């Protein structure tokens, strides 16, 4: 099988988005943007041994590669539309490719995103996806809009992905529900989109709440005060903290892909309505201050957020 057959066999399925004038197969893809909209784009790479284990299932790897990229588009309040895939494979394993491609197709259909091109090469397993989305002009939610007095919120529960990873690294067997949190994070696209016009800033929690909230306060030139007692936790995380007196997982553990956002207090009731509408737990964890520092009440500073280098 050569490169063209590989693409033809595994990464070429009919597209249903009428805005695509030309998908994969030419030198580049062409799509039409509605007037009044801006293109929003983001790239994330998943590498074997760094972002996933060698024996993780191809289905989970495909799902997560898409989900983490969708999560960045969600954090901007945009609608995800198209993506490209650059995949580096150590060998041509047709069973692996079949499973990977099936999961990628299924996930892309679930989130209404179209594969419009890509590249394949040989080397250590590596998946790079570039996701493109659209948003009404000037409506994207940036990191830089948080203001003194805004409330700080997070979606879902924080730290479970890191707890699962910790268990695997320590040779324990995580429960199925815990593995789902690590391998199948849900991109909060509906929530991100609903927050447009309400949230003053937003980020997805990929590297840990402490670090990702720090990105917001730095970009917005403000400070933040949060209380560890307010961070929403799962039952397993509550037990872990009780046993170990260790808050490093919810504060520094990455890979949750929940949204952390800020909004003025007068939008609080609308945010409660959005939580109900999107069927997602949203919790207020603190307020934006003018101190330029991140103060975390009840936390002794243990643990380090994920560092890429
Ligand atoms: Mg992000």
Report what the structure shows:
- With 309 residues, the protein is α+β, with helices and mostly antiparallel strands.
- The protein has 2 domains: 3-136, PurM-like, N-terminal domain (60s Ribosomal Protein L30, Chain: A), CATH 3.30.1330; 143-297, Phosphoribosyl-aminoimidazole Synthetase, Chain A, domain 2.
- 34% of the residues lie in helices and 25% in strands.
- It has 10 helices and 12 strands.
- It has helices spanning 3-10, 58-75, 94-110, 160-169, 176-183, 189-194, 209-220, 235-244, 248-252, 268-278, and strands spanning 20-22, 30-31, 37-47, 79-89, 114-122, 126-136, 151-155, 201-204, 223-227, 259-263, 282-289, 294-297.
- Strand 4 (79-89), helix 3 and strand 5 (114-122) form a beta-alpha-beta unit.
- The chain binds magnesium ion.
- The site of magnesium ion has 4 residues, from helix 2.
- How many helices in DSSP terms? 10
CATH top level assignment of the largest domain = Alpha Beta
Q: Per the principal axes of the C-alpha atoms, what is the gross shape?
A: globular
Number of strands: 12
* Architecture (CATH level 2) name of the largest domain: Alpha-Beta Complex
- C-alpha Rg, in Å? 20 Å
Weakly predicted, low-confidence segments? none
Element-level helix/strand string: HEEEHEHEEEHHHEHEHHEHEE
Q: Name the average pLDDT.
A: 94
Class per helix and strand makeup? alpha+beta
CATH topology of the largest domain: Phosphoribosyl-aminoimidazole Synthetase, Chain A, domain 2
Largest sheet: 6 strands, mixed
Q: Quick one: CATH superfamily of the largest domain? A: PurM-like C-terminal domain
* Neighbour order of strands in the largest sheet: 8-10-7-11-9-12
Strand content: 25-35%
Q: What ligands does this structure carry? A: magnesium ion
Helix content: 25-40%
> How many structural domains can be distinguished in the coordinates?
2
End-to-end separation in angstroms reads 36 Å
């Amino acid at each position: 099988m050569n490169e063209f057959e590989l693409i033809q066999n595994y990464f070429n399925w009919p597209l249903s988005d009428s805005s695509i004038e030309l998908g994969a197969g030419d030198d580049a893809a062409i799509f039409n943007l509605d007037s009044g909209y801006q293109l929003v784009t983001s790239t994330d790479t998943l590498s074997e041994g760094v972002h996933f284990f060698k024996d993780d299932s191809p289905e989970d790897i495909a799902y997560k590669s898409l989900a983490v990229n969708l999560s960045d588009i969600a954090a901007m309040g945009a609608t995800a539309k198209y993506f490209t895939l650059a995949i580096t494979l150590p060998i041509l394993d047709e069973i692996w490719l079949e499973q990977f491609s099936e999961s990628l197709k299924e996930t892309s259909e679930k989130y209404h995103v179209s594969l419009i091109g890509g590249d394949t090469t040989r080397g250590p397993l590596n998946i790079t996806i570039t996701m493109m989305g659209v948003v009404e002009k000037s409506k994207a939610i940036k990191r830089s809009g948080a203001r003194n007095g805004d409330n700080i919120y997070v979606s879902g529960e924080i730290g479970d992905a890191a707890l699962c990873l910790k268990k695997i690294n320590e040779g324990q067997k995580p429960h199925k529900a815990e593995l789902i949190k690590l391998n199948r994070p849900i991109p909060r696209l509906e929530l991100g989109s609903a927050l447009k016009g309400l949230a003053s800033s937003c980020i997805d929690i990929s590297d840990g709440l402490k670090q990702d909230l720090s990105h917001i306060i730095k970009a917005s030139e403000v400070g933040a005060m949060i209380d560890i007692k307010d961070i929403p936790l799962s039952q397993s995380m509550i037990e872990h903290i009780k046993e170990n007196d260790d808050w490093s997982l919810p504060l520094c553990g990455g890979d949750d892909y929940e949204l952390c956002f800020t909004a003025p207090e007068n939008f609080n009731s609308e945010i409660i309505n959005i939580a109900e509408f999107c069927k997602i737990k949203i919790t207020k964890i603190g307020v934006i201050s003018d101190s330029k520092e991140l103060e975390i009440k009840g936390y002794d500073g243990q643990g380090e957020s994920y560092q890429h280098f």
